């Protein structure tokens, strides 16, 4: 495998490993051995170490003294804690979009993402569906104009994606539910109804949290 710009080599390795964790190819508590990664990807150990540190910051990997890196475990407590934080951050972001958009053309990127999500659902591609859905957050960041909010969510996206994938893998019909929630959210945004946006977001986050917790029990 060959990695190229624009991302740093460590970021590209981190992205590669993150995809394997999100999709369940690397299991919870499974060791990630630096030497095996370097050999598999034909890279040196320095960028691999840096990649593992990136993944630790993104809550996908734990690095233990004298034991090295292992895939972080998803527990009910972690999921509940994550979704409590997500609820606050998503509400902040959603309200910012509803209150700050001025020209309807500013909302076109959200409609484009919706079309891509429909295509992913029709192909039953849960991996791409989960990945594309985070484009909604990234398109919303400029409306909030808050670099700390953006940085926090960017670091959380990988672990959130892991939970989404877990839930969608077991209940593929949830892709349609997500699209329905998105339609309701976009309508509230068009109407500049920030309070309704907040209600929709909180209901969506709670629904997904419950799905993930149920999926954990079923594993």
From TrEMBL:
Residues in the signal sequence: none
PROSITE patterns, sorted: HTH_GNTR
Entries under InterPro entries matching the protein: GntR_C (IPR011711), TF_FadR/GntR_C (IPR008920), Tscrpt_reg_HTH_GntR (IPR000524), WH-like_DNA-bd_sf (IPR036388), WH_DNA-bd_sf (IPR036390)
Pfam families attached to this UniProt entry: FCD, GntR
Record carries keyword Transcription regulation: yes
GO molecular function: DNA binding; DNA-binding transcription factor activity
The entry's keywords: DNA-binding, Transcription, Transcription regulation
All copies of domain HTH gntR-type, residue ranges: 7-74
Source domain of life: Bacteria
Name of the protein in question: GntR family transcriptional regulator
């Amino acid at each position: 495998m060959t990695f190229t710009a624009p991302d740093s080599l460590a970021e590209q390795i981190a992205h590669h490993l993150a995809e394997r964790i999100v999709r369940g190819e690397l299991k919870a508590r499974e060791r990630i051995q630096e030497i095996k990664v370097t050999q598999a990807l034909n890279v040196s150990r320095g960028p691999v170490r840096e990649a593992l540190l990136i993944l630790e910051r993104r809550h996908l990997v734990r690095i233990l003294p004298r034991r090295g890196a292992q895939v972080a475990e998803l527990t009910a407590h972690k999921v509940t804690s994550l979704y409590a934080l997500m609820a606050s951050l998503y509400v902040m972001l959603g309200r910012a979009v509803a209150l700050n958009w001025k020209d309807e053309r500013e909302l076109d990127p959200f409609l484009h993402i919706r079309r891509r999500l429909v295509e992913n659902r029709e192909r039953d591609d849960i991996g791409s569906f989960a990945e594309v859905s985070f484009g909604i957050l990234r398109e919303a960041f400029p409306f909030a104009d808050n670099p700390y909010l953006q940085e926090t969510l960017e670091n959380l996206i990988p672990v959130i994606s892991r939970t989404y994938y877990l839930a969608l893998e077991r209940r593929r019909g949830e892709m349609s539910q997500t699209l329905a929630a998105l339609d309701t959210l976009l309508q509230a945004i068009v109407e500049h109804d920030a309070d309704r946006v907040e209600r929709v977001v909180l209901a969506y986050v709670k629904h997904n949290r419950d799905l993930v917790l149920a999926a954990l029990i079923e594993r």
